[in-house]
Amino acid sequence: MSSRRVSFAMAIVLAAASIATAGCKASAVIESVWPHASAERSVPKPPAPPRWPLTGLDAPDVASTVTRIVSVKIENSPPARPQSGLDEADVVYETVTEGGITRFNAMFQSHSPTVVGPVRSARLSDLHILPQYHAIFAHCGGDPDVRKELADRKRFDDLDQFFNPIAFWRSTTRSAPHNLMTDINKLRTQGIVARKYEPTLTVPGFTFRKAPPSQGPTATVIAVPFAPGNVASWRYDPSSRRYARSINGKPHADAVSQRQYSAANVVVIWARISTAKITGHGAAFLEIVLTGTGRSSVFRDGRRLDGTWTAGVGSPPVFKAADGSVIKLAPGNTWFQVIANTQDIKIE
Q: What is the pLDDT of residues 325-336, one digit of tens each?
């Protein structure tokens, strides 16, 4: 082999050795750019947005969520229809009165309609409902026994129109006594100032879940027979995920908005109802007990969730299934249909 070829071969060997050596040195000094960790880093969960306690919907800010709840007693006899402002209530209780006619106890917090009514007199059932929401109560008189209870300022913040006329007026479009109206903003401002009530208050709310329930029988139509001539019915609309309300087969709509009343949740509460006394007109004045516990059915997202309701003195009712788990409401407004333990409802 010529010296020239030997020199060329040696050069190749030396070059290969140099590359290999360089490669070894390079791999020896490479370090990970990631810091050493024995566990994955955790990212703090962002705070939940403020939500209205009675609807579970987003509130503009935390301060809004302690806005004082205003309860208004609203009539539901045929001359009182169409009512005003019920479509803006967060919660509505419907309870039977004398002769099978019902009345509403409507709770306003997230909305403040300027026309609400017709406002009528208080009933015994209100004495159970009001403390659960720590609500200011707007009404027009009532049975002497009820008014005596409402006068206790340690238990109730009362705005009886007889003694607080500043936030009430008579409509000229209908006849008395079905024409007394009120304004939620005036009740909160002028009424609260005049009586020196607390303008804000933290109130326990309901438990909500946005996702529809995966269990429970379907319920497209609910019929609640308060009396033979007073049947409230609710029909589920899958597109809006809401139940639309009718009375005796006719849509029940609002006088101001012209919208048919609807609810994200319709809750039937079976309660102990008894005759407290006979009125001067010969009708039975009813005691409806809404503290304690009883049977309930929650209707949401087209399903029926059976269980029990439990309510104390200072917080709204809680609904539980047979296994003890909490039945969660759909975000949105709720209508409570309160009937006697002996009554049945019809479901399709």
A: 999 999 999 999
